[in-house]
Amino acid sequence: MDEQQVKKKKGRINEGADQIDDDDQKWVFDTSVDYKGKVPFRASTGVWRASLFVTAIEFSERLTYFGLASNLIQYLTKIIHQDLETAAKNVNYWAGVTAVMPLVGGFLADAYTGRFTMILFSSIVYLMGLSLLTMSQFIPSLKPCSTILCNQSSKIHKVVFFLALYLISIGTGGHKPCLQSFGADQFDDDHPEERKKKMSFFNWWNFALCCGLFLGVTLVVYIQDTVSWGVATLILTISMAITVVTFYMGRFCYRYRVPEGSTLTPIIQVFVAAIRKRNLPCPSDPALLYEILKPEKNQGRLLCHTNRLGFLDKAAIVDEKDKNTSVSNQKHNPWRLATVTKIEEVKLVLSTIPIWLTTLTFGIGVVQPSTFFVKQAATMDLKITNSFTIPPATISAAGAITMIITVVVYDRILIPFLRKSTGNERGINILRRIGIGMFFAILAMLVAALVEKKRLGIALNEIPPIGGIKTKPSFLSMSVFWLAPQSMLLGFSDGFTLVGLQEYFYDQVPDSMRSLGIAFYLSVIGVGSFLSSFLITVVNRITGKNGGSWIGKDLTTSRLDNFYWLLAVMNGLNLCVYVLIAKRYSYKRVVDRKERVVGDVSVGKGVESIA
Q1: How far apart are CA 479 and CA 473, in angstroms?
Q2: Whole-structure pTM value
Q3: Helices and strands in the chain, H and E counts
Q4: How many whole angstroms separate alpha carbon 130 and alpha carbon 114?
Q5: First vs last Cα of the chain: how many Å apart?
Q6: What number of other Cβ atoms are within 10 A of residue 38's Cβ?
Q7: pLDDT tens digits, one per residue of 272-299
Q8: Whole-angstrom Cα distance, residue 47 to residue 28?
Q9: What are the Cα distances from residue 93, in Å, to 89, 97, 109, 545?
Q10: Mean pLDDT over residues 462-471, rounded?
Q11: Above 80 in pLDDT, residue 15?
């Protein structure tokens, strides 16, 4: 293509700019469709009106999950009569599977089913798990015990109980990656006002999540401890069913993304094309690399070329065979020639791996409130007044409240101030937000270690050894609210790191992989749960050799404070590595739609198609 042709096409773009602006205000050209499969009308679809339906089902799902997860270790130790180590491992295994399953659900949704269909299917599975869990509490043959008091639950109850839990895990596998990405899909990235609303969406999404968490660890746990688990699970089942129906009713105002097939195939094609052209020199001018610009307005977004992972750029080198294919108007073979956008998408995926790895240690700390924090609380004074006591799991409410406050303050006060002072549309960049939260996670583990050391000192004085053997823990005079500072620090940490990770793994992956991106975020917590179980096993084997296991059968004979010190050191070292990686990170750069909608030329970004 000669210089005169390029100038003509640039002129056509300038002439059509006003028309483009009008169309962009009226229609949504971000590859999404409405419920009829047509280009969405901006005024009647998407944004907050649609995302509220999605947020409602997220609230109910989190209410259910945290209502079960936060008190699960108490159920396993008191009702099923497992020892502390076994119960903690079972909680971590279940939490791990629940957080890893979204990798499967996210892949299937992006590639084949679409997010809306996957949400509906997983909701049915989720409700099956809740219904089975409810039946295990009411049907006599499925109850834990046939008598009021027993030392061992029935085998059939264990089977049904764990089957129900893992059905909920499978349901979560479709819910979690698709709900949040489907909600964020309701905002157009190329529309300035909607893009700002999307940034707020992640904050308010977590506000709803924390409200569900708060009610789960207070109201639901209170019903479990004072009324029965059966009544609690019945309430959760009904609540979930109502919000699923509500979600389906909002289908007319949603913006849908059409699945584009396997997200792995384009990645493999780029690697194959780069290897086939490994002996060719890369051009010094990125404009010579291959790119296709379609004339349709609702095409996917194009990415700018970056210098990272330069070997992959060879997949976009146009050799003689590719030129001959272009001349004969044949379709290029994607296994030997890839576009700059496809290559940059592969670079984005590869760039997320170091960030993902350096957040796993943080994930280990995140899962502690649902296990050891609860068991610590169970040994302490739970009284608020002389006649009212709170369930042990309710201490997690301190973290939920702190996260709610953090999210609101960050969205309403910090972001507007930081936008003015830094000029950054987000206030601060995503990775910096994540790093701030990781720092507060270290402080949380340090405080947890100090509080546990104090709790152990009181326990040794108030529960003295009898005949050389320590008695089982009972309620101490130490108030459970001593655990509030560490929970609040973790809540503050979550308000920065978890929200930041959600935004990062949605925004910094290819547009066609956003469900899978949210699944990557969730896998941080899932793999963190598995690593926590592995770490418990390793620590017990090493420290148990001398008869002084850090995590014994009960907390009075354990040294949980040393375990928290270990987590603090691990998180500190990990943060140093994370900072080094974050400083070198290059963010996604998108070509503005107005610069590329006409012809096969990209104006202003130096990317030109030879097609």
Answers
A1: 15
A2: 0.77
A3: 21, 2
A4: 24
A5: 9
A6: 9
A7: 999 988 888 888 888 888 887 654 554 5
A8: 11
A9: 6, 6, 25, 25
A10: 53
A11: no
